[in-house]
């Protein structure tokens, strides 16, 4: 990154490049005999030259500017078409297109007029046209340079690092970049026709190779750019499958399935639904055969389950295969039964003895009223959502592999009940959805500490020193604004059972009441918590899930967003303990009521509102 990182308040040295510097430098000679098709190799060559000239050399800013331009990486399917090669956790980065806006565009265009290397011409002209779209001539220069690069790569005059010829990722990306420029210029006829000829010719060539990966690349390109009629594309792909793909029963990998999905996409584009459905069925059978290869292997149950799920998902929307899909679902359940045997528990122990003794000391000898009052405060305040998100982002930066990959969340039977997306590799890549698993994990640890080192310790001391009768708790509950009058006795019974250590009764009594408490608070604040069926002229109370969907701002205003988020993560979210769903549908195990999430229930919700 030499020459690219400077004081944040000062421009980088290469941003001081000027037109007179061009006369000091034999620009085109910089790349003499360079046969690389990769612009970054040109940048490396320039950085090599910087090592042999002095820091005070007058042409140095210009060389650094060109090196920075060539070192940006290509993004063929995105805007802008180039991006910084390096982005640091603190937000600092290497050069990006916007850094060259303004007077530097004139310098870029002046250099372009003196340079012949097609890779350098394509990068400079494309950047100038992207920054100032009025420069149509530079856009045409970029388009023609890309076509020149593709032709030279094909005939061997240029080489792609780590690849053999044009039938690879580099050739595909060059065509994508060229098509993007061509579309931006309004598809000039000569250049657009030439690009379509190239895309069609490369697809037909790769169709007679044995490279399935390249076939996927150029099939998608040909379909997207309409370079080949879709029915011809389908024929090319199916001929390729017949020549190269192993039989589905071999189940060696998912390669055959990927090929059939390509054929299905081409048939759909050709509006041949019958052929598309047939190809989808073939793809699904390949996935199912692949799943069977993992059955019985050490730690193979999750892979078998994954591929069988993929097979079933592939058949979604395909008509006439209901019975087959039913059989695959039964086979999936059989495979899921072996997952628990493959899972390895991971644990970490923490000594909380000092915290336990500290809490015990605070409650020993207190009168019952003071002890109950202190109990409602022992868990502390709920963390603010903004702080949780900030900490999750920091964690994803410090431990990138913890959120780099998408995750599947399974229940006790091995069924996938939720999926969370990848958090990416940078702070800007992380979304609220991708951060949710990290927040859930942190909150689970917080609840565990609150329950084991605080709430449960206080409960044991209180019940050992006092008789917590229904009469005592009833007197408190009836004054709680959260508890509806018609549920006072039931709520009291739930809390008393919790104090007595009957966690099963407490969980199954109090969890359903949470919905009634939220609804009661909304009604007290003048909100309508019902839905109206105009046709039947009937009303129905909203469930708590419906309340979250329709009245979240009102709930936040009453309870505070920190509390509503905690309720959602503990009771409703599939990524968390999902206590409400588990209680309502008898999905919890016998041990769940004695876990940390359930133990934290009463003080963290209803009793805390008293």
TrEMBL record:
<dbReference type="InterPro" id="IPR055804">
    <property type="entry name" value="DUF7380"/>
</dbReference>
<protein>
    <recommendedName>
        <fullName>DUF7380 domain-containing protein</fullName>
    </recommendedName>
</protein>
<feature type="domain" description="DUF7380">
    <location>
        <begin position="13"/>
        <end position="193"/>
    </location>
</feature>
<dbReference type="Pfam" id="PF24098">
    <property type="entry name" value="DUF7380"/>
</dbReference>
